[in-house]
Design brief:
The protein is α/β, with parallel strands linked by helices. The chain is 42% helix and 20% strand. The protein has a six-stranded mixed β-sheet. A hairpin with a 4-residue loop joins strand 16 and strand 17.
Length: 224
């Protein structure tokens, strides 16, 4: 018997590959013509510099193209509970897939300021003097971070959770002067209040409210 959920997800994956290929191709066009100009010089140094610079241009263009596609066609889910295999899960799949193009092809080689710029393009509300040392930010349009907060290396900020045949989507709110240690996972619906300090490799469960203080563990508990 045909499983409609599996068929829907398979069709979504095919659509993702097709549109994703077009996005990459479009983003490569400016870089291609730019690199060809460096190649014509015949100077090895300029060619190598041109390759690196063209790659950077590709990444910047890719960020804008992905953000434009996601926002123009509203390929993102609002908070709620959805059925996996329905049209909403297809929208989420496309959103995650398109953003992953930037996440894997460009963000690992950039500084925090460029990461933040991309997340803002996607709709994230990020305050001043924020540092984000991770590319593992999912559902960025549902993310809010206050001033002077730091997200440690390889921490995961996740606005969705797949449970059985349900997809739960909820915002993540991080206050001001918050420090989240490296490899920590923050799940959907979490609220981290101003001044909270989260130790490395911790787990903040769904819809958990973390007050000011020092926290750590799996799941997190108050240390002091």
């Amino acid at each position: 018997m045909v499983n409609l959920n599996e068929v829907s997800l398979f069709a979504g994956a095919i659509l993702l590959y097709i549109i994703g290929s077009f996005i990459i191709a479009i983003s490569l066009i400016p870089s291609y013509f730019l690199f060809m100009q460096f190649l014509k010089t015949g100077n090895l140094f300029l060619i190598l510099f041109g390759f690196a610079f063209s790659y950077f241009v590709f990444g910047i263009v890719l960020m804008f193209v992905v953000a434009l596609v996601v926002r123009l066609f509203r390929i993102r889910l609002m908070p709620g509970t959805y059925k996996i295999g329905g049209k909403e899960s297809l929208i989420w799949l496309l959103n995650a897939g398109f953003i992953s193009l930037v996440r894997f092809l460009f963000l690992p080689f950039t500084r925090s300021s460029i990461n933040i710029f991309f997340y803002r393009l996607l709709g994230a509300k990020i305050g001043k003097n924020v540092i984000i040392n991770t590319t593992c930010v999912y559902d960025a349009h549902l993310l809010e971070i206050g001033d002077n907060s730091v997200i440690g290396g390889d921490a995961a900020i996740i606005g969705h959770s797949a449970e059985g045949n349900k997809l739960i989507v909820a915002p993540v709110k991080i206050g001001k002067n918050v420090s989240i240690g490296q490899y920590t996972t923050v799940l959907p619906g979490a609220v981290i209040e101003d001044g909270a300090i989260i130790g490395a490799m911790s787990l903040i469960p769904k819809f958990k409210r973390v007050k000011k203080g020092v926290w750590g563990g799996v799941p997190i508990r108050r240390i002091k």
